[in-house]
Design a protein that fits this description.
Number of strands: 12
Oligomer: single chain
Structural class: alpha/beta
Helix content: 25-40%
Number of helices: 13
Radius of gyration: 21 Å
CATH architecture of the largest domain: 3-Layer(aba) Sandwich
Number of domains: 2
Amino acid sequence: MTSAVDPGGFVPPPYPFDVPPEVREMAAALPGGVIDLSRGVPCDPVPEVVVSALAEPDSARPYPPSVGTPDLLDAVVDWCSRRIEVSLDAEQVGACVGTKELVSGLPHLLRLRNPERDTVLHPAMAYPTYAMGAVLAGCRAVPVPLDDEWRIDLSAVDEDDAARALCLWVNTPGNPAGGLDDLGEAARWGRERGVPVLSDECYVEFTWSGPPRSILQHGVEGVLAVHSLSKRSNLAGLRVGFYAGDPDLVWYLRETRRHQGFLIPGPAQVAGAAALRDQAHVQVQAARYRRRLDALVEILGVVGVEAGMPEGGFYLWVEAPDGNHMSLVRQLASELGVLVSPGTVFGPDGVGWVRVAAVVSDDDLEVVRRRADSLSN
């Protein structure tokens, strides 16, 4: 859309997670309507420790600190020590307004600091915001292939691209396929080339194969871990996240973001600290997702679609039986009334695949099961 004052510059592309209207109409036609498995939007209760924290009004009065309240930073430091066995100082941590704004904004801030570099390296199949962050910063977004186990293949990076790289994104457990990168190798690769490695670890509490993994376990030099409370604590609406790692990089982000005015609301910071200090609700949530993933694998099998458990995360990465991902999207909508994401949302290499989110209430999951069973009778 243009106007008399439109300079004809950047035009935002369609939002990648928007479901085509005709697919939504197929799903809505079934009795009981649409069940949306296309996005990772939490559907389970907010933890009681968070509800209690939000009842305290005093934190709403003053401007909250951009870097995070001392209580929130202390809770982050404690969580890192307890869950990933990494010792940090509060100065090595900063708060962010959820993690999507940080992911999309980091290339811009990094390029201000290092204008001679113009390339963002990211997994070839990944959360679309890694590439969009590069676009919004006027940078090149260069995808890095994944191997057969859905791990980033750093041997495939062209050294000319590495020489121009502002940063390398890794994501463990990975979205959409649930792979577990070799984070030690990623840290080493970045340090050898002077490329900051940004590790998106928002699904770390849902690591099914082995213990939680963080790039911080391999030292903090040249790396930044990015974490979110949206998934672990069902707090997507509060927008609480944090970043931690290299002291110089954290200092730069803390100081720059203060000028930008990025502030997590005070009550959300209080709630975030309470959520980080409580592990019991996370264990309950992890059990829910594991049970739902198992159930969805079984349900898809009933309608002739083979799926396997991921190594981490709460998504199934499913290959279309006929190689046509949109055919499978339509089949699942028309037969089960569910919406899923076509694999191409996550990059061209996702052709022939779909992502199924296990973010569904138990009642809705039972509806999907009954629909599948009715087809097999």
